[in-house]
Amino acid sequence: MKVLVINCGSSSLKYQVIDSDTEKVLAKGLCERIGIDGRLVYQPAGSDKIKTDVAMPTHKEAVKLVLDALVNPENGVLKSLSEIGAVGHRIVHGGEKFTRSAVITDEMLKKVEECNELAPLHNPANIIGINACRELMPGVPMVGVFDTAFHQTMPAKAYMYAVPYEDYEKYGVRRYGFHGTSHSFVSKRAAEVSGVDLHNSKIIVAHLGNGASISAVLNGESVDTSMGLSPLEGLVMGTRSGDIDPTAVQYIAKKENLDFDGVMNLLNKKSGVLGISGVSSDFRDLLAAEEEGNKRAKLAVDMFCYRVAKYIGAYTAAMNGVDLIAFTAGVGENNGFVREQICEYLGFLGVKIDAEANKVAGEEKKISADDSKVLVYVIPTNEELAIARETVALVK
Ligand code: ADP
């Protein structure tokens, strides 16, 4: 079956068409600047990107342009849209309502809408994308795959914040966690390639991208994760602060005369390794600056690695041990320097890295030494493929 995978943001829409039998990507791309002016990027497998500036007043026009590109006689990858057997949509927040992926119906979308307050920037955009697809592709089965669902197995002691219990009961204030599709995909794949029995395993997944989170996966189920009610909590990220004393937030707000939105913007967009270094949120730029002797760039990278290592220590305690640590996402997959720096803190666990193997970039590989007490792997994530698999499983 050919599956269209859609990841819709407020002004952008990423897409892939995946043949679920071969698991090959047939075409991919994105629509940018929706509602502003509009640009379509379309890339059939094995060919260069084709970029077209074209008006996209709403997401509906964006989806229409994607569908047109897919069946374009010149470089389309489908003869007709009827070849698309299902659509898988990424949805950011499923609250406590969704513990797994779900077939999209009117009733299901109502439940998604009820989670909007928890992710006001993301969920409404996801729903707009879904509605645009439903209008243009009536009758095609669609599935919603949630960033939060995998983490719904966390026990209360891990997901509760120590605030008045009524705030949880009345407003759903708790840790939800994100990147669930990636943590699920990578933990399963890590078990598969290493020969560890997923159902009898202690795995820590470090998803280190621009957004970064880490999870403790016990016997195949998430038992803790670093992101919280929103993706702001936990690790130091590209532009997000991660963990911080709320009093520091109040103090900055007062000093800088910022309201709630202003201070949240500072924490989400101007903090993290960008805020510390003043150089960039991109690790390639940071490492180049560090090499040139930039002290703040070095501090940013040091803080990032230290925080990851601390969480690995914490999650080892949470699971009473760790069998395997898996690095994934942009930095985790590509950056041996960062992986090495993190693992240097983990000697007490018997973690030993094979320096030669750790040169790997973007490929599945064991990077621990043969006498390491903990297996360490690089496992490239593939959220689109995970969404396509979930979609097929639910519509078949
Ligand atoms: P997101 O999906 O959250 O936007 P990614 O997973 O794409 O983020 O990760 C982006 C980060 O990965 C950037 O900091 C970038 O520098 C880093 N990255 C990507 N490729 C490489 C590479 N080859 N070497 C070092 N860092 C890389």
From TrEMBL:
ATP binds at K14, H207, L208, G209, N210, G211, D282, F283, R284, G330, V331, G332, E333, N334. Mg(2+). Can also accept Mn(2+). GO terms for molecular function: acetate kinase activity; ATP binding; magnesium ion binding. This is Acetate kinase. PANTHER family: ACETATE KINASE, ACETATE KINASE-RELATED. GO terms for cellular component: cytoplasm. It comes from Candidatus Weimeria bifida. Pathway: Metabolic intermediate biosynthesis; acetyl-CoA biosynthesis; acetyl-CoA from acetate: step 1/2. The gene is ackA. It catalyses: acetate + ATP = acetyl phosphate + ADP. InterPro entries: Ac/propionate_kinase, Aliphatic_acid_kin_short-chain, Aliphatic_acid_kinase_CS, ATPase_NBD. Homodimer. It comes from the Bacteria. Keywords: ATP-binding, Cytoplasm, Kinase, Magnesium, Metal-binding, Nucleotide-binding, Transferase. Its EC number is 2.7.2.1. GO terms for biological process: acetate metabolic process; acetyl-CoA biosynthetic process. Its cofactor is Mg(2+); Mn(2+). The keyword Metal-binding applies. The active site is at D147. Catalyzes the formation of acetyl phosphate from acetate and ATP. Can also catalyze the reverse reaction. Mg(2+) binds at N7, E383. It is found in: Cytoplasm. Its main location: cytoplasm. Belongs to the acetokinase family. The record marks H179, R240 as: Transition state stabilizer. Substrate binds at R90.
